[in-house]
Every structure is written in C-alpha cells, then in structure tokens.
Amino acid sequence: MTSKKAMLIDISLCVGCNACQAGCKEENGLPPQEEKYLSLTAYTALDKYNDLYVRRMCQHCDVPTCVSVCPVGALTKSSTGPVSYDGEKCIGCRYCLQACPFHVPKYEWSSTKPSIRKCKFCPSRIASGRQTACAEACPTGATKFGDRDELLAEAARRITAEPGKYVPRIYGEQDVGGTSMLYLSPVPFEQLGFDSRLGKAPMPMLTMSALSKVPNVLSVGGVLLAGVWWITNRRAEVQAYESSLKNGNDPEREDDE
Amino acid sequence: MKTLSVPHVTGWRPIAIILILAGALAAVARFALGLGATTNLSDEFPWGLWIGFDFLGIGLAASGFTIVAAVHLFHAKEYEPIVRPAILTAFIGYLLVVLVLIIDLGRPDHFWHPLVMWNPHSVMCEISWCLMLYTTVLSLEFAPIILEKFNIHSPIKWIHAVSLPFMIFGVLLSTLHQSSFGSLYLIVPNRLHALWYTPLLPVLFFISCIASGLSMVVLESLIFSRNGRPFLPTRLRANLAKAIALALAVYFVVRIQDLLTRGALHDLTTLTYYSVAFYAELLVGFVIPFALLIFEKVRTSQTGLYYASLMVVLGFAFNRMNTAITGLERYPSQTYFPSIIEIFIMLGITAVGFCAFSFIAEYLPVFTAEEAGAGQHRDAAPSVEKKPLFAPPECEDPRPS
C-alpha cells in the first residue's frame, strides 16, 4: 500500500499565475476560463489578500466531516489521501455542503440529476505514481506534492531555516484532525481567511458523542419501558383483583367452579 | 352561558384546494427544473425552509409517542380517547415530512439508498432509518382504525398480539430521531450562531418536542370538543397542561444554564437580528405559556388553554426555524428567504395534511373508537366537568365545511 500523500502549499512562494487552476481544469476537462472562486468548473481557485495568494480546494481531511455525515457513504476517504465522491450513490441531501468546515463541495443546482463537485486529488495520477496536475503545473514550487510525513518534515525545515519568514505553524498538520493540504504562511493564517475556530479535534467527533448513545437508548430504554409497562400493568391487575374481592365475588373461586 | 371562544376556521375548503393545486404545480416545477431554478437554496445555504418544515412536522407529531407511552406503557388509561387522534396526527405528520424530504432531495429517485447503503457515522442515516421504521410502526398502530371501519377483525388480533414491543420500539425510535434532528447541527459549530449551537441540541430538541406534541394534543381535543361532544374531561386536559408546563420549565432551565456555561449570554445583551429572534422564540414559546399555565384557572379554561398551547406550538416553530435558518444566516453573512415555490410546496403539503386529517376523522373511527372499546371513559367524562363549559349548543361543527 502506498503511503499517505499530501501537498505542501507555501503561500510565500505563490505568485498568483493561476497555472494550478489551468492544470486542474485541463486534467478534469473543465472549461478553461480563469475563475476567482471555487465553483462547479473550478476545483481550485486563488484567493488574494493584499499581495498574498492562497489556494483554496478540498483539504482532503484525514477524518473528513463530509464522509462522516453522508448518509449513504457516497463520500469515502482512501488510505492514500483522496476523499472521493460517487454520484451514483448520492441522494442529494446536501449535508456535505452544510457540514464541510471549509465550504468546499459545490452542488449542481441547475441540474435535475445533480452531483457535487470538488477537487478529487487526482486519484488516478496518484495510483500511477505521478504527482497531481496542479503541483505539476506550479512553476514556482509553491505547491509541492509528496508523502505527507516528508512534506511535514520539509515544512518544519523551511520554518527553522528562515526564522521570521514564516509564522511558526503548519496549517493542516493537526487542524480538524489533520488534512492532506499543508500550508505555510508568512502572516498569521487568520489574516488569510483561514477559520481559526475549527480546532484540532476532528469534527465528526461532535456527532459521534450523540450517535454513540444510540445503542444505549435502545437497550436501556427498551428494558426500562418494558419494566414500567410490567409494573403499571401489574398494579392495574392487582387493583382489579382487589376491587373484585371487595365486591364479594372472588374471581378465582369463580374460575374453579 | 359561557361559550367557547376558540376561533373557527370556516370556509377554508376553497383555500385548501387553491393551496393544494398551487403546491402541486410548484412540485411539478421543482421536479422539472431542478432545485436551483425553483428554490433560493445555494452552496452557502444548502438547507432552507423545507428542512425547517420537517423539524416542525416531526416535532408536532411527537404527540404520537408521548400519548402512546402515557396510555399503553404507563397505563394512564383515562387518556385513551386521545390515543387515536394522536396516532393519526403523528402518522399524517410523518408521511408529509417524508414527502417533503423526498422533494428536498437532489436525487429523489435515489431516496431508497439509505435502505441499502449505510453509514453508521451519519446522523442523517440514523434519522432516515428512524423515520422509516417509526412510520412503519405508526402504520401498524393506525391499521386497526382502517380495519375496524371495514370490519376485518382477524388482523387486528395479530396486531394487538405484537403491539407492546412495537409501542416500546416506537417510543424509542421517536426519542432517538426527535433528538437526532438536533444532532444534525452538532457538526456545524462554525456556522450555527452561538445562541442556538450547543452540544445539548439533541436534549433541547427532545424536551421541546414533548411540550409541542402535548400542546398539539390539547389543541386537537379543544377543537374537537367544539361540536358539543366533550372530548377529554377538563381535569385531564389540565393535567396535560401541567405536563406541558413542566416540559417548558425544564427546557427553560436547561437552555439558560447552557447559555450561561457557554458564555453565550452576552449575545443577548445587545439587540441584534439574532437576539430578537431568540427572545421572540423563548418568550412566545416558553416563558409566556409557562407563566400562563401555572395558573389553575388557565389550565381549566378552554380559551386560556387554547392560546397557551397555540403559543407553545408557535414558539416551537420559531425555535426550529431559527435553528434551521436564522442561526445559519451569520455564515457567510448571507441571508436566505425561501422562494415562492418553496413556500407554495410547504403550504400545499400543510393543506394536504389538514384535509387528510379532517377526511379521516370524518370517515374512520378515530374519534368514536371509545364507544366500541372503552365505553367507561365516555361515561366518566361528563360527570367530571360542568357540561355548559363543554357543550355550547350554539357551537358549529369545527370540522371544515
């Protein structure tokens, strides 16, 4: 089995040439015009903050929120990194759009048989040992494809090699439980539109705490309700019996006769 | 003589027909053109009015499991007359919610997928299963009503033989998915406003559905007492009102304590879109009805009880819509207002529900079952309360004419 792949995106190296988007569009057969935001036809896009460019795309989380919320398992996480989507399974509930902390999946609203669309992390390229289309297209090395462990070491090296050039943080190393996209930035990530409130715990844990109680509710609740029924039923029986005794006719004697 | 001042809805049949036709047209447009062309939903706002409506419908249908639990599991037999109306409400409510869910799905043709494709980590998967199973349970609980009508008695025996485990199962399923609707939003801490986002969402959804479900029962019993047939004795309805007040109080304490511990109370000190929505929900649905229901006079007065329980239902609707829509409008600072087609589909389906209810109430033994089965309640009822309160002869038939 191949190791876990990732991409290191060094924001300080990006010049905003948009070659990543063009490469992505070519790889996925999307219309080639330049786009500024993620859309059905742009699986990656450049956000501009002053003179810095930030690539947005699916983060391919290690514990993806979209995978955990999808009721039919249309989204799956592969061991090599990609979060894949199967439109044949999808029921169109759009829970993934609602739940994705990065607001990545885009929905074919105008279609009567809609799917979601997002960056696929070039799974066929990865399978054949090649790098992703965007990393291949990047002329400055701002996007680098490789093994996640090696890229993390590389990122740490860059931070220590040039103190002051980067903020000492690799975004995606641990955020929401770790992602396949690792970012290095010269300014605090909050200034670049990164959500600082997401935390390090994988988001699916939030619902797991509720879902893990389901078997308990069913088993304990079932026993409890059956017990309550038995007690109240018994009480009603006893009451009926006692009142029949008071009225002078013993039901058991009646039975004997 | 004191007459009942519960407002009547008369002449609504033509309105209902118009609503149903408009809803049907809207549904045709939605299926022909897709969600994008017919709704105001977007990538930023993927869930809207219909999801709110689902929460609402399911919550109001909570009468089904609360009354079944009270009567058949806790042996509060005196509430027997309300069991069938409660089951009917729940059954119709669930069928409508399932219908709206299917309309809301991007791929309605794939609606059956959760049956065969499971993701045990998904709250949505759990809800789909609970909805399917509980609707099945409800149809079994409802079946005797149809079978009685057509005098087919042998299957009724079979259903009665297995009814206890089914009732227990139904109560558990309801508990699970009523709270799971709250769990749906546990995954969006970064989107849902702090006034509504809390890890206690499932707990709060469960407590509030008990208050709203019982309020629906109270409303129904009041409306169906208008034709002069006392439906539930005043004392019993007052007891239900006590249970509602208790649920409201528990809800209020949990809600405020939760806001305190999460430090979200400061969101309420300034007047914003969100704090106004929050206050409206809490005052209309919880604080004012509670303040009303603690008075014995209100609990035993038809008018007082009518408005108090109506407020609970309205506040409940507020709460669900706030959770599903208002609280999410902060991110990404985009507002959402449903399109005319979304509204028409919702109104049309609501009208279908009302029509179905009044039709079934008219032709099936929903409100008359106790005459055959549990006649003693019929006898007990008039002796408890004062007749004039209940049987104002000048009252018209409340059912739509």
Automatic annotation (TrEMBL), chain A:
Keywords: 4Fe-4S, Iron, Iron-sulfur, Metal-binding, Repeat. Residues 5-35, 81-110 form the 4Fe-4S ferredoxin-type domain. Its main location: other. It is found in: Cell envelope. InterPro entries: 4Fe4S_Fe-S-bd, 4Fe4S_Fe_S_CS, FDH_Electron_Transfer_Unit. Pfam families: Fer4_11 (PF13247). It comes from the Bacteria. The keyword Iron-sulfur applies. PANTHER family: FORMATE DEHYDROGENASE, NITRATE-INDUCIBLE, IRON-SULFUR SUBUNIT, IRON-SULFUR PROTEIN. This is Formate dehydrogenase. It comes from Geothrix oryzae.
UniProtKB/TrEMBL annotation, chain B:
Residues 378-388 have a biased composition (Basic and acidic residues). InterPro entries: FDH_cytochrome_b556_subunit (IPR051817), NrfD-like (IPR005614). Residues 378-401 are annotated as: Disordered. It comes from Geothrix oryzae. The chain crosses the membrane at residues 12-35, 47-74, 86-106, 126-146, 158-176, 196-219, 240-256, 276-295, 304-321, 341-361. It is found in: Cell membrane. This is Formate dehydrogenase. It comes from the Bacteria. PANTHER family: FORMATE DEHYDROGENASE, NITRATE-INDUCIBLE, CYTOCHROME B556 FDN SUBUNIT (PTHR30074), NI_FE-HYDROGENASE 2 B-TYPE CYTOCHROME SUBUNIT-RELATED (PTHR30074:SF4). Pfam families: NrfD. Keywords: Cell membrane, Membrane, Transmembrane, Transmembrane helix. The keyword Protein biosynthesis does not apply. The gene is fdnI_1. It is a multi-pass membrane protein. Belongs to the NrfD family.
